[in-house]
C-alpha cells in the first residue's frame, strides 16, 4: 500500500476519535443555548487526494458518517451529511481550480495550495455539511431560522477546529 | 449499449449518491424517534389539508348513514335527560350539585383520515389545540373505543387507533370486573386481544368487555366488545382472550375526544 492510503486510514481513525471522544462531549453554548456543535470529521473527506473517483469518495463519506453515527446514536444523520459533502466536494474543487489546473497527485491541503485557498475550499464544503446536518436533525422545514442559526454558529466553531488541526498536523499528503 | 455503459460510467456516482442518501434517510426515520414521528405524522399542514379536502368530498356520499346515526344517538341521549327519568328520591335531585362533580368532558371532532389495513394504524382528526384536544387524550365513539391522541398541532390531531400495536387500553369484564389490557396484534380489524385475565376469572363467550377506568384516559364502562374466543395456554396463568370489537373502525366519522378534568389529581397521587 502506498503512503497516501495509509495516511488516510490514520487520519480517519484520529478524526473519528477526536470527534466522538472529545467533541461529542463539548457543548460550547451550555445547556440552555444548545446551538453549537463542532464537526471535525469532514476534514477526512476534504483531505482526500483530488484524483479520487467520485464513487469511492461517496462510499468513504458514508463510511465515516455511519462510524460517527454509531457513537452519536443517530443512525443516518451524520452519514447523510457526509455523503452530501462527498457529493459536492468535486464541484467545489472545480469551482476553486487554480489557473494551471490540478496536478495528478495533488492533495487539497495548506502546503500545496496555501492557507487562503484551503480555507475557502474547506469553508464551502463544511458550511454545506453543517447546514445539511442540521436540516436532517430538525427534519422540519418550518424551523429554517433555527437551523440557520445553529448552522452559522456551528460552522464558525468547526472551521476553528479544522484550523487548529491543520496547524498541529499540517499534512503533506 | 455502449452509450448506456458510458452513461453509467460517467454519471454512476449520481445514482450512488442518491442510493446512499436513501439508505441514510431510511436509517434516520427508522431509528430516530423524533424524525420518525415527523415522517409518519399526517397532522402537518400539507397532508392535513389534502386529507381534509379529500374527506369533504367523500363525506357527501355518507351523509345518509351519518344522519341516521346522529338521530339514533340523539334519541339515546334524550332518554337520559332529567325530564325523562322518574326520580325515586326527591332528595337526590336537591343535592346533586354538590354530590356530583363533572369528571369527563367530551369534545366532538371529525375523523378526516383513518387506516385499518396497516400493522400500526393511525387516524387524524380535524381540530387540535384550537378546540382543546391535547396529547394523551382518549377517543371514543358512541359504540366503542377508537384510540388515543399522540400528536396534536393547532388544527389537527393524530392518534393511534385501537388497531395499533402501541395502543394498550386498560379494560375489564363488565360482569366480573376482572381487568386486563386490550391490545392488537395485527390482522383482522374487527377483533383484538385481551391479556392479563387470570385463570380463575369466570369467562364465557359473549361476555361484555368495557373500559376499566383505571387509567386517566377513558371513563369506566365504555363499550369495547364481546369475548369471542378464549383459551388457556399450557402452564399459563392467564387467558388468551379474543375480543370482537363493538364498533367498526373502518367507518369512523364523528368521534368524541375525552378530556379528564381530574387527570392531574389522579396522576399526582399515584406518583407519590
Write the layout of secondary structure elements.
The complex is a heterodimer of chains A (173) and B (272).
Chain A: H1 3-22, H2 42-46, H3 54-72, H4 77-95, H5 110-113, H6 115-138, H7 144-169
Helix pairs in contact in A: 1-3, 3-4, 4-6, 6-7
Chain B: H1 2-31, H2 33-40, H3 45-58, H4 63-78, H5 90-99, E1 104-114, E2 122-126, E3 138-141, E4 144-152, E5 156-161, E6 169-173, E7 179-183, E8 191-198, E9 208-211, E10 223-232, E11 238-245, E12 254-260, H6 263-271
Antiparallel strand pairs in B: 1-2, 1-12, 2-5, 3-4, 3-12, 4-5, 6-7, 6-9, 7-8, 8-11, 9-10, 10-11
Helix pairs in contact in B: 1-2
Short note summarizing the structure:
With 173 residues, chain A is mostly helical. Chain A is built from seven helices and no strands.
* Beta-strand percentage range of chain B: 25-35%
Let me know the average pLDDT of chain A.
Answer: 89
Provide the succession of SSEs of chain A: HHHHHHH
Helix content of chain A: 55-70%
Structural class of chain B: alpha+beta
Backbone structural class of chain A: mainly alpha
Rounded to the nearest angstrom, the distance between the terminal CA atoms of chain B is: 74 Å
Low-confidence stretches of chain A: none
Distance between the terminal alpha carbons of chain A, to the nearest Å? 14 Å
**Shape category of chain B:** globular
Rg of chain B is 24 Å
Main sheet: strands, sense, barrel of chain A = none
Assembly form of the protein: heterodimer
Pair with the biggest interface: A-B, 23 and 20 residues
- Please outline the major beta sheet of chain B: 6 strands, antiparallel, barrel
User: How many individual domains of chain B?
Assistant: 2
Write down the domain tally of chain A.
Answer: 1
Return the CATH class of the largest domain in chain B: Mainly Beta
What Rg of chain A is obtained from the alpha carbons, in whole angstroms? 16 Å
Amino acid at each position: 500500500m502506498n503512503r497516501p492510503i495509509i495516511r488516510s486510514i490514520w487520519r480517519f481513525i484520529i478524526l473519528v476519535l477526536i470527534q466522538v471522544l472529545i467533541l461529542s462531549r463539548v457543548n460550547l453554548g451550555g445547556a440552555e443555548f444548545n446551538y453549537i456543535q463542532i464537526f471535525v470529521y469532514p476534514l477526512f473527506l476534504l483531505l482526500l487526494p483530488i484524483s479520487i473517483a467520485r464513487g469511492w469518495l461517496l462510499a468513504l463519506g458514508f463510511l465515516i458518517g455511519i462510524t460517527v453515527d454509531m457513537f452519536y446514536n443517530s443512525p443516518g444523520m451524520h452519514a447523510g451529511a457526509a455523503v452530501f459533502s462527498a457529493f459536492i466536494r468535486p464541484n467545489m474543487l472545480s469551482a476553486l481550480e487554480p489557473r494551471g489546473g490540478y496536478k495528478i497527485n495533488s492533495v487539497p491541503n495548506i502546503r500545496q495550495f496555501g492557507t487562503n485557498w484551503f480555507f475557502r475550499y474547506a469553508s464551502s464544503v463544511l458550511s454545506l455539511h453543517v447546514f445539511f446536518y442540521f436540516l436532517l436533525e430538525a427534519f422540519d422545514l418550518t424551523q429554517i431560522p433555527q437551523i440557520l442559526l445553529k448552522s452559522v454558529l456551528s460552522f464558525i466553531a468547526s472551521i476553528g477546529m479544522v484550523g487548529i488541526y491543520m496547524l498541529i498536523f499540517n499534512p503533506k499528503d | 449499449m455502449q452509450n448506456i455503459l458510458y452513461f453509467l460510467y460517467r454519471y454512476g456516482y449520481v445514482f450512488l449518491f442518491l442510493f446512499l442518501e436513501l439508505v441514510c434517510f431510511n436509517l434516520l426515520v427508522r431509528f430516530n424517534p423524533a424524525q420518525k414521528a415527523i415522517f409518519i405524522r399526517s397532522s402537518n399542514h400539507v397532508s392535513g389539508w389534502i386529507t381534509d379536502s379529500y374527506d369533504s368530498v367523500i363525506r357527501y356520499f355518507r351523509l345518509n348513514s351519518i344522519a341516521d346515526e346522529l338521530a339514533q344517538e340523539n334519541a339515546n341521549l334524550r332518554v337520559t335527560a332529567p325530564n325523562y327519568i322518574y326520580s325515586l328520591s326527591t332528595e337526590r335531585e336537591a343535592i346533586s350539585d354538590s354530590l356530583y362533580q363533572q369528571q369527563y368532558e367530551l369534545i366532538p371532532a371529525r375523523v378526516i383520515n383513518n387506516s385499518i389495513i396497516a400493522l400500526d394504524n393511525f387516524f387524524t382528526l380535524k381540530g387540535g389545540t384550537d378546540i382543546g384536544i391535547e396529547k394523551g387524550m382518549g377517543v371514543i365513539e358512541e359504540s366503542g373505543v377508537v384510540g388515543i391522541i399522540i400528536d396534536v398541532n393547532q388544527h389537527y390531531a393524530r392518534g393511534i387507533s385501537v388497531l395499533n400495536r402501541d395502543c394498550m387500553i386498560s379494560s375489564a369484564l363488565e360482569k366480573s370486573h376482572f381487568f386486563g389490557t386490550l391490545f392488537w396484534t395485527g390482522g383482522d380489524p374487527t377483533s383484538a386481544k385481551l391479556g392479563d385475565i387470570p385463570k380463575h376469572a369466570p369467562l364465557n363467550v359473549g361476555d361484555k368487555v368495557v373500559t376499566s377506568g383505571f387509567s386517566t384516559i377513558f371513563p369506566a364502562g365504555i363499550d369495547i366488545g364481546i369475548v369471542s374466543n378464549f383459551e388457556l395456554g399450557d402452564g399459563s396463568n392467564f387467558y388468551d382472550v379474543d375480543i370482537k370489537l363493538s364498533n367498526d373502525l373502518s367507518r369512523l366519522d364523528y368521534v368524541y375526544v375525552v378530556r379528564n378534568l381530574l387527570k392531574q389529581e389522579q396522576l399526582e397521587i399515584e406518583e407519590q
